[in-house]
Amino acid sequence: MCSESGPALSHLAADQGEALVAITIGELLRQNAAAAPDQLALVEGTADRGMRRTWTYAELLSTAETAAAALLARFHPGERIAVWAPNRAEWVLLQQGAALAGLVLVTINPAYRAAELGYVLRQARVSGIFHDGGYRGYDMAAAVAQHIGTLPSCGRSCASTTGPPSSRGST
């Protein structure tokens, strides 16, 4: 699209009205838990409102710290772990735990199939993957099993699980 003054920009200039804050996700969670421990932080988005789980900031921090400890028992800070699952509460708990543990979280679209999964895992050089058993009728566990042994970066530290690190064992 062009105007009389020339072509329109395909981007907006950054708003520099406020300075960026140099803080990690883990530090932000800790700050929020200290400032508003009883405030609602996470609501599980299930269709049945009666089945929804909730976490306050204090509960979210506690659960994330438990997840971080479990992750650090298996991985080293700076390593990459993948999550291949649809949106669910455990995804957020893993994200926050990884942030507190100093791990890099590689998110993978749950609609990907085995070939796409393998490409992402190799490109990202992940040390482990956390995934659902299936998504929309697709066997995610079988797709992971197809690739897990072919990833040079996994070595002995590769994990594959269908739940959050604090509640399920690795396989």
Plain-language structure description:
- The chain has 5 helices and 10 strands.
- The protein is 35% helix and 18% strand.
- The strands form 4 sheets. The chain has a 4-stranded parallel sheet, sandwiched between helices. A two-stranded antiparallel sheet has the order 1-2.
- Residues 156-160 and 162-171 have low confidence and may be disordered.
- The chain is α/β, with parallel strands linked by helices and 171 residues long.
- It is globular and about 50 Å long.
- The protein has one domain (22-161): Rossmann fold (3-Layer(aba) Sandwich).
- α1 crosses α3 and α4 (114-124) packs across α5 (140-148).
Question: Any chance you could write out the topology, listing elements then pairs?
Answer:
Layout: E1 2-3, E2 6-7, H1 25-35, E3 40-43, E4 54-56, H2 57-72, E5 80-84, H3 89-101, E6 104-108, H4 114-124, E7 128-131, E8 134-135, E9 138-139, H5 140-148, E10 160-161
Parallel strand pairs: 5-6, 5-7, 7-10
Antiparallel strand pairs: 1-2, 3-4, 8-9
Helix pairs in contact: 1-2, 1-3, 2-3, 4-5
